[in-house]
């Protein structure tokens, strides 16, 4: 592919699988994967996922833990850019990971990152989001309509049933580890989309039966098991075939000049 793909990272608690699977698939397809964090320091994943969350279960798969160990040696991962310094015109694709441990809120609530997402959205280039990463889209407002940028689109995210099940199974031991917010992820995304636009997918999630929603340039998944399907089956063709809109380039160029982005 030969294109640059941006994966912004939370400083702490990002989901292992939702980062390493896109990174591995895209680098093997020939893309240059660029990372960015708020302070320009390497991000740290949710450490529980490298072993197990509870009773030896719910951690990342062994092959994805192994990929994370490779990622820790990647120069781009070790020297990420700063969110504030990103020039979104430089990237052909944007990928937003999820995570559920408490410190993921830094990523999901960042006004700086929301502005960068808004700039990239205006370009109408491929964008993939998974799990709680879809909250970042839901919270990014289109300044022309004063609605979320995803209003009227079709998409999915971590479903209420999935999030609630994980929370109820582990709350006795881990408290709010699986519940970063009082409102379920699905409920906030549904509200941003509008009626009839949310797709839940199969009731029982499975790595063998991934579920991905594709709507134009937007590709979304629900949980780590959907990550490989989203990246391997959908994103490469979109990245290779994407064409910028003049409006998007105009909007983002103006935003870059106003913010002093380089």
Write up what this structure looks like:
The chain has helices at 16-28, 62-71, 75-78, 105-108, 111-123, 133-138, 160-174, 185-193, 227-241, 246-259, and strands at residues 4-8, 12-14, 32-37, 44-45, 81-82, 93-96, 127-130, 141-142, 147-148, 212-215, 218-221. It is an alpha/beta fold. It has one domain (4-259): Class I glutamine amidotransferase (GATase) domain (Rossmann fold, 3-Layer(aba) Sandwich), CATH 3.40.50.880. The strands form 3 sheets. Strands 5-3-1-6-7-11-10 form a 7-stranded mixed sheet, sandwiched between helices. Strands 2-4 form a two-stranded parallel sheet. A two-stranded antiparallel ribbon has the order 8-9. A hairpin with a 2-residue loop joins strand 10 (212-215) and strand 11. Helix 1 (16-28) packs across helix 2 (62-71), helix 1 crosses helix 9 (227-241) and helix 5 runs antiparallel to helix 10. The chain is globular, with a radius of gyration of 17 Å. The two termini are 25 Å apart.
Q: In DSSP terms, counting alpha (H) and pi (I) runs of 4 or more, how many helices?
A: 10
Strand neighbour order, sheet with most strands: 5-3-1-6-7-11-10
| Helix vs. strand class | alpha/beta
Instruction: Please state the average pLDDT score.
Output: 89
Can you count the beta strands?
A: 11
List the helices and strands and how they pair.
Elements: E1 4-8, E2 12-14, H1 16-28, E3 32-37, E4 44-45, H2 62-71, H3 75-78, E5 81-82, E6 93-96, H4 105-108, H5 111-123, E7 127-130, H6 133-138, E8 141-142, E9 147-148, H7 160-174, H8 185-193, E10 212-215, E11 218-221, H9 227-241, H10 246-259
Parallel strand pairs: 1-3, 1-6, 2-4, 3-5, 6-7, 7-11
Antiparallel strand pairs: 8-9, 10-11
Helix pairs in contact: 1-2, 1-9, 5-10
């Amino acid at each position: 592919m030969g294109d640059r793909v941006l994966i912004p990272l939370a400083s702490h608690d990002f989901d292992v699988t939702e980062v390493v699977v896109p990174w591995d698939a895209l680098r093997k397809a020939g893309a240059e994967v660029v990372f960015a964090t708020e302070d320009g320091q390497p991000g740290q994943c949710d450490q529980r996922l490298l072993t197990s969350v509870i009773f030896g279960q719910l951690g990342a798969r062994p092959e994805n833990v192994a990929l994370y160990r490779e990622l820790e040696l990647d120069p781009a991962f070790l020297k990420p850019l700063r969110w504030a310094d990103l020039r979104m015109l430089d990237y052909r694709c944007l990928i937003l990971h999820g995570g559920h441990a408490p410190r993921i809120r830094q990523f999901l609530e960042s006004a700086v990152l929301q502005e960068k997402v808004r700039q990239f959205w205006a370009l109408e280039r491929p964008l993939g989001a998974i799990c709680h990463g879809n909250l970042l889209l839901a919270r990014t407002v289109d300044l022309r309509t004063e609605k979320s940028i995803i209003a009227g689109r079709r998409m999915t995210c971590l479903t209420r049933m999935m999030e609630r099940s994980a929370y109820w199974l582990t709350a006795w031991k881990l408290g709010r580890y699986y519940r970063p917010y009082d409102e379920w992820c699905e409920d906030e995304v549904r509200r941003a989309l509008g009626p009839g636009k949310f797709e839940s997918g199969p009731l029982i999630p499975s790595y063998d039966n991934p579920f991905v929603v594709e709507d134009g340039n937007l590709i979304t998944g629900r949980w780590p098991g959907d990550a490989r399907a989203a990246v391997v089956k959908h994103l490469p063709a979109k990245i290779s075939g994407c064409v910028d809109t003049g409006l998007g380039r105009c909007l983002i160029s103006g935003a870059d000049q106003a913010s002093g982005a380089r």
